[in-house]
From TrEMBL:
InterPro entries: Nucleotide-bd_a/b_plait_sf, Ribosomal_uL23-like, Ribosomal_uL23/eL15/eS24_sf, Ribosomal_uL23_CS. The gene is rplW. It comes from Sphingomonas edaphi. One of the early assembly proteins it binds 23S rRNA. One of the proteins that surrounds the polypeptide exit tunnel on the outside of the ribosome. Forms the main docking site for trigger factor binding to the ribosome. GO terms for biological process: translation. Part of the 50S ribosomal subunit. Contacts protein L29, and trigger factor when it is bound to the ribosome. The keyword RNA-binding applies. This is Large ribosomal subunit protein uL23.
Amino acid sequence: MAKKQAAAAIENRHYDVLVAPHITEKTTMLSDNNSVVFKVAGTASKPEIKAAIEAIYGVSVTGVNTIVTKGKTKRWKGASYKRSDFKKAIVTLKDGDTIDITSGI
């Protein structure tokens, strides 16, 4: 019983690592280089991101680059606030593998 619960916890962790696909003009141009960009958890490491992508999408990952984007300070009606920081992962896939992140829209 304990092994099944541990395996289920590992699978749930994959969905905690990947927050959402990050779709912009610049990230769609990266698809020419067989790369996909995801917003990931701030505590996620590169091996965790790689394992999550391979487990969820069933593709082979050749590289993972991460970027932490700091939130900007903005003003609205005279009051200042700060946007949230977030972490992005640029995932490079093996030639021939693709992820269609727009299929669910």
